[in-house]
Amino acid sequence: MDALVLGEHTLTSRLLLGSGGATSPDALRAAVAASGTQVVTVSMRRTGGSVANGLTQELLDLPVELLPNTSGCRTAREAVLVAELARESLGTTWVKVEVVPDERTLLPDVVELLEAAETLADKGFDVLPYTTDDPLVARRLQDVGCVAVMPLGSPIGSGLGIRNPHAISLLRESVDVPVILDAGIGTASDAALAMELGCDAVLLASAVTRASHPEVMARAMRAAVEAGRLARLAGRIPRRHLAQASSPADGVMGT
Amino acid sequence: MDALVLGEHTLTSRLLLGSGGATSPDALRAAVAASGTQVVTVSMRRTGGSVANGLTQELLDLPVELLPNTSGCRTAREAVLVAELARESLGTTWVKVEVVPDERTLLPDVVELLEAAETLADKGFDVLPYTTDDPLVARRLQDVGCVAVMPLGSPIGSGLGIRNPHAISLLRESVDVPVILDAGIGTASDAALAMELGCDAVLLASAVTRASHPEVMARAMRAAVEAGRLARLAGRIPRRHLAQASSPADGVMGT
Amino acid sequence: MDALVLGEHTLTSRLLLGSGGATSPDALRAAVAASGTQVVTVSMRRTGGSVANGLTQELLDLPVELLPNTSGCRTAREAVLVAELARESLGTTWVKVEVVPDERTLLPDVVELLEAAETLADKGFDVLPYTTDDPLVARRLQDVGCVAVMPLGSPIGSGLGIRNPHAISLLRESVDVPVILDAGIGTASDAALAMELGCDAVLLASAVTRASHPEVMARAMRAAVEAGRLARLAGRIPRRHLAQASSPADGVMGT
Amino acid sequence: MDALVLGEHTLTSRLLLGSGGATSPDALRAAVAASGTQVVTVSMRRTGGSVANGLTQELLDLPVELLPNTSGCRTAREAVLVAELARESLGTTWVKVEVVPDERTLLPDVVELLEAAETLADKGFDVLPYTTDDPLVARRLQDVGCVAVMPLGSPIGSGLGIRNPHAISLLRESVDVPVILDAGIGTASDAALAMELGCDAVLLASAVTRASHPEVMARAMRAAVEAGRLARLAGRIPRRHLAQASSPADGVMGT
Description:
By secondary structure, chain A is an alpha/beta fold. Chain A has one domain (4-232): Aldolase class I (TIM Barrel), CATH 3.20.20.70. Chain A is 41% helix and 15% strand. A five-stranded parallel sheet of chain A has the order 5-4-3-10-9. Chain A has a three-stranded parallel sheet with strand order 6-7-8. Chain A has a two-stranded antiparallel sheet with strand order 1-2. In chain A, strand 3, helix 1 and strand 4 (39-43) form a beta-alpha-beta unit. In chain A, helix 6 (135-143) runs parallel beside helix 7 and helix 8 runs parallel beside helix 10. Chain A is globular, with a radius of gyration of 19 Å. Mean pLDDT of chain A is 90; it is low at 51-55 and 248-255. The interface between C and D is large, with 85 and 85 residues. Chains A, B, C, D: Its EC number is 2.8.1.10. Chains A, B, C, D: One of its GO terms (biological process) is thiamine diphosphate biosynthetic process. Chains A, B, C, D: The active site is at residue 96. Chains A, B, C, D: Keywords: Cytoplasm, Schiff base, Thiamine biosynthesis, Transferase.
């Protein structure tokens, strides 16, 4: 399968994993291995850039690229500060920008997000913004220099899947940068659907880390993303109101 | 993954392929190989039991088990006759029983189906009935001795996926024999969903054979069935109306 | 609006009400009045044909036609007996035939249902069978002489609405007798949808009797059935993937 | 039913009608009468404020309040200018603010929308903004002084109904001002659903004006909005996976 280019990073896996919710470092390591992911997101705010504590070291030791996020930031200003801290701490230039002022829905505030994204892109970051499924906001994010857009399927941790496939389709048609479905994925078919709608990758955390068996779900998600990607490339049959015999009398093959 | 037992047959692949709609023997062979399937269904009616013609020989040469079906039969009597013809011709004792009197919807006639299934089970066949998503009919089919039940997701060739996941769930809870989702699958996420709902396998034809790139879709379906099966086993997170942070401040891991 | 003919009965209201779940005779009376219904179903099994007790007298005093049902019957034989009892007790010749052996799903057993329906039609009843959303079973019910078919939207009392609108559409296209959506309705939009799919009427009980305010919900359902019926007749606009300006520059009217 | 207050206007009808797409003044008049609406939206841009031409006079003669919109505006600046023109021409202080730069999706640009809404609210307008289903944007619109918010169900004229009921629910819970579902309604059950989700009113145009029989659909929509409103107030039954008998043996009433 062709590679996914996110700024300076080129990925062959199209599944990105969040580390939140993991019940232990071992569980996270096992899930990461089973998922085949090349990227794990890490929250800068709470680690404070310190690499002294064990958990952070565990993350640093994972055989993946770390993608810092601005989880917990409620304003553009906070997100910019956290992103700069991440660049200093981790030596990376990419950042997943989250600006989430509302604890109840954990939905992104697109106004603050746009401001943060523009500022960070101007500062040379490879910006990956966590956004809504609004196609016009996605295009604005592209226009201010984001290297991808990360629309939600449904609220973080809700497990509701993709509530509005139509919006994701419209969004996909509205931008040229990669689209990474982020948030809301609950199970494998959700991830497959994301790819079938034209997303270039899927980012998820709770669906794996909080599953009864995280490692098994990580394998499921790996297969689901591949399945959805292949199905998109394969060109599905159209939907029809009525039936169509798969074994027509006049078919090329008689069975 | 554990094996799927269908009467005398034990399968490790949980994807069964129909041969209908294939545009050439080579295309079918490639799709079969890519799908990893161990079973291909063949229509007895149209081949008439003759193995003299090339197309049937192509099927006979596939490195899979052939599962004869009674496609084209409109009554129980016809289905029983075709099943017996299949047993003589192919030397197999399993049969996918289809009784489909209505060309427009290609839906099974459950009254005739139940009669055919009972008769064939009494004659020693391993009966796999193509049925509706009615849980009580499925239990009746089990009670007359079917080795599995094959409910539809939506009409044959419609590509509408699983129109009633709730009914498939109820059906799954209503029988002990394996459940094979048959008909209606359009794309990979449909197949994954079938497995997540508790189906033991998926049978499809048009979704692969009529896709723009059948071999690619066959790979997609293989991955999707595996993804859905794993996701079912992994125990998905619950659905929630509101968000739940994947990186809670009080989480076990701080990221 | 044109009338709905069910055997010997001609109705102008297209909402039928079940009495089950009503918390008091007064609540039922108020709901019946608010709904505008002309028909209330009554369970013969439990009343035993006795009109001596107050509750049954309450029902007999309602300003509506009573439609006896065979609720609680698990076999065709039971249903036939109860129907005959109803004819003697109430002097009516119509009957809603329910054959429901499974307490968990309360789904109809279509095999026993078909037998009961045929027997009762032969005995001169106006048979209204509670059935699944299977179009071929519906046609069989029509063929044995039923004056209407009553497919479910989802299991009784589940409030899940119409789980498979596609099946209801196919069923509607498959029979000529009136189609009355029965079971599963949870709220007003479900009832409107039933009518938009081409159903001729809606029968519901719990959605009204168990609502927080039954009389208000009865008014809601009355309006919803009318709304859905009118919308069907009005000819809705097609669904489009993309937008279409409602105020096009070249429109006939400039606003 | 209680009244809906939109700034200086108090309405008893909860259905607002757009005039776009009407095939003739007579058709519009008939639809307006059948709908029971008290408000019709008019596009200021195209009429240019002129009341000299016949069509505008037809609108002015309707027995309703006119609500000017800024249809066709692509920026906040344009929208503000058009709103001011409307105030001068029509002597009204309310305005439906649309900022729609993208012809393909006709989705609102929430950045420009927020700017226009704030400016107009500051100038003393009663602002009704056409927005997305983003709850945080809705709250921002409330915070800058809008008297209501008008989220879309799906793209204008698409007839796709409410693509994301979950988002509309979250939006409803996120603001205190009235919520008017605007755009995407295709048929009566869509309008009922909007009200059931907690919307205070529905605005639609194409669904009525482009229906095969606009006047009949106007009646349908009137009934649907009332049905959905009543159903919301009535308190619907919960959704259950399994069945619940409506005629339980231990029910209060024996039927």
